Amino acid sequence: MTDNKTLPTEVPTLYIVPTPIGNLGDITQRAIDVLTNVDLVAAEDTRHTGKLLSHFGIQTKTFALHDHNEQQKAQVLVDKLLAGHSIALVSDAGTPLISDPGYHLVTQCRQAGVKVVPLPGACAVITALSASGLPSDRFSFEGFLPAKSKGRKDKFLEIAKVERTCVFYESPHRILDSLDDMLEILGPEREVVLARELTKTFETIQGMPLGELVEWVKSDSNQQRGEMALLIHGYRSTDDDSIAEEVKRTLAILTKELPLKKAAAMTAEIYNLKKNALYKWGLENLD
Ligand code: SAM
């Protein structure tokens, strides 16, 4: 059963309104109706949102609410809501609050007893997951990867044994460094999907073992451009089976005398194996 009611005009409401992540055709009719009928649109970037609104012939006033002023401006918006105005919250693209501002506003609204109504709509993590071919029965959205290598490696170590699909957002400037760090920690066999420019002209959704994906991205600079999400297959206990017990024992003995990196390289040479997989196993299993 559907309910076409868009604006319950008697109650001031904060609407959470997703906007397209590339293809303007992905806005919903309900989003257009809400954006047209509210008193104010709170937007991450009022110029950016102004263009979207004018594309759809919407003349509603905008109000800037971004990461740097949200905590302080949220109270202004709550006061307007309590005074009887209805407000729509949008971000530059996709669903507000998903790696975007809005958390403080929604929290303060709920604390003040203001009604919060979410609209479903575009979101890069869900769009990417739905076509990735990776298990989607359980997944973990991890937001943006840390900007520094140490932070990224720590993050990959944290998720190395997580059995759910993990999804990250990444910027094109860091994609090569991030893939290198991922390779070092998760090894070349882990299946990874790069979902790029979703809903746009150059949409690409490419999945392969991480070692191959790194080479593919390095060899084609187009794959280093645009907006992108990385999806990592969850850990499978069989991932470790390829390392024989004798190899693990050798690595453990060498690690008592040598740094892990060196010990992994020597063990790899002795048994003619890939050092990354041994290094990763050592990181996860040896002190
Ligand atoms: N709120 C948005 C959402 O619902 O997905 C995410 C906003 S976050 C600031 C922007 C990041 O989302 C981009 O850097 C990229 O990692 C991811 N993203 C956004 N649009 C995308 C697209 N069309 N294709 C792939 N990733 C996208």
From TrEMBL:
SUPFAM superfamilies: Tetrapyrrole methylase. Its EC number is 2.1.1.198. It is found in: Cytoplasm. Transmembrane segments: none annotated. Residues 242-285 form the RsmI HTH domain. Residues 13-213 form the Tetrapyrrole methylase domain. It is an enzyme of class 2 (transferase). HAMAP family: 16SrRNA_methyltr_I (MF_01877). This is Ribosomal RNA small subunit methyltransferase I. The lineage of its organism: Bacteria, Pseudomonadati, Pseudomonadota, Gammaproteobacteria, Vibrionales. The gene is rsmI.
